[in-house]
Amino acid sequence: MDRDSAEGGRGGAADLVSALPPEISCRIFSGLDVESLCHASVACKGWHRLIEGSERLWRRHCLAVRAVCQREIDGDRGHGYSWKITLLRNYWKSKVKQEWLSGKYSNIPSQFSLPDKSMYPMDVDTWGEILEAELER
């Protein structure tokens, strides 16, 4: 088996997804979470082209993140960013922001008690939202 066939670069036997109609392949990939979708997009050239070229795959995840980061998502889309770029710019921020808003870190004794992934660069408006949520608890 040559390298292109193994990687699916020319629709080789190892790349069954690229052999399917694009609509079916997109439907298969639509069941993946964000991290799995990113991993799949680097698995082979055929998958990369399909995933990177499908705004619909990224849009669904981006709208889920919008529930936590509406201002950020709307701002990025307003500036013309694609669904994928908007998602990548806001995915981890939404995870961290959701943990803060849910009160996960409300009763910590010191900054040294925070897990490594509890911080993410956030603007003053986001910290304002978090502080308002803390004051309401």
From TrEMBL:
<dbReference type="GO" id="GO:0005737">
    <property type="term" value="C:cytoplasm"/>
</dbReference>
<dbReference type="InterPro" id="IPR036047">
    <property type="entry name" value="F-box-like_dom_sf"/>
</dbReference>
<keyword id="KW-0833">Ubl conjugation pathway</keyword>
<dbReference type="GO" id="GO:0019005">
    <property type="term" value="C:SCF ubiquitin ligase complex"/>
</dbReference>
<dbReference type="GO" id="GO:0031146">
    <property type="term" value="P:SCF-dependent proteasomal ubiquitin-dependent protein catabolic process"/>
</dbReference>
<protein>
    <submittedName>
        <fullName>F-box protein 48</fullName>
    </submittedName>
</protein>
<dbReference type="GO" id="GO:0016567">
    <property type="term" value="P:protein ubiquitination"/>
</dbReference>
<comment type="pathway">
    <text>Protein modification; protein ubiquitination.</text>
</comment>
<dbReference type="Pfam" id="PF12937">
    <property type="entry name" value="F-box-like"/>
</dbReference>
<dbReference type="InterPro" id="IPR001810">
    <property type="entry name" value="F-box_dom"/>
</dbReference>
<feature type="domain" description="F-box">
    <location>
        <begin position="14"/>
        <end position="61"/>
    </location>
</feature>
